[in-house]
Amino acid sequence: MLATMTFGLLFLLFILLKLILVVEMREVCIIERLGKFRAVMQPGVHFLIPFIDRVAYRHETREQVLDIPAQSCISKDNIQINVDGLVYIKVMDGMKASYGIEDYRTASVNLAQTTMRSEIGKLNLSETFSERDTLNETIVREIDKASDPWGIKVLRYEVRNITPSPNVIHTLEKQMEAERAKRAEITLAEAERESTINLSEGERQEAINLSEGDKQRQINEAEGKAKEIEILTQASAQGVSMIAKAVQKEGGDNAIKMRLMEQYINQTGDILANADISVLPTEIAKLEGFFEGMDKVTAATQGGKA
């Protein structure tokens, strides 16, 4: 009797479990009735017909992250690189996710790989690094188109690692060294050119400064001479004016003649003192000639008597 009651309680518990379905907030359930799709059960409590209705599929409705394994790709410039990434998807239609594709996760990963390989082949190696955001957007757009019949939405794709082969890395390192050496040579050449320009500018400025200084010196000398001439002229004019006034006074004429005689005597004395040859005034020269003639006549007369 006890065994029968125990079996009956277990049977009732089994029936209750088959009758009541609790769907959690993070998922949806696909219900089949006698093997045929019946409904998509949203989160909450639902009642089923035992042995007729069954939960065929459960789908996660939260955003899912799928790891894309690394794969070998060939870039547009024929360089082999290994690329991996992450794809973020979300189930939007539970029925399509159940019946539109066998395994949407595996299908999403394979589609992401093929799309990534195709898009990498359109870019050069340098572009795969600089155009990563554009590459991500293109892959998302292409995967989303193909996955629409599966009832899932591709939210974003992220390229995680782009790794060239060891030979390519070695070649790139050599290329970078060559670029650095080239930039260093260009920098040195630019510095030398700037130095030459600066030196020539300094020499040019120095020549300009010297020329300006010499020009200013000549101007100053000319102005000084002009000032000197002006002062001498003014002094001469004042002297002439004073002489004219003195002449008009009584005895001024005699004073001027005496002054001229003094200047004549003084200048004649200076000439006689500084000249290398004998210089005499005209009157004295005539007297000297007269006396020399007389000496010659006397000498000739004395010679005749002898």
Automatic annotation (TrEMBL):
Domain of life: Bacteria
Localization: Membrane
Protein's UniProt name: Paraslipin
Protein family per UniProt: Belongs to the band 7/mec-2 family.
PANTHER family hit by this protein: STOMATIN-LIKE PROTEIN 2, MITOCHONDRIAL
Protein topology in the membrane: Single-pass membrane protein
Classification lineage: Bacteria, Pseudomonadati, Pseudomonadota, Gammaproteobacteria, Alteromonadales
Residues of the Band domain: 18-176
Matches recorded under CDD domains: SPFH_paraslipin
Record organism: Thalassotalea eurytherma
Database matches in Pfam families: Band_7, Band_7_C
Record-linked InterPro entries: Band7/mec-2_domain, Band_7, Band_7/SPFH_dom_sf, STML2-like_C, Stomatin_HflK_fam
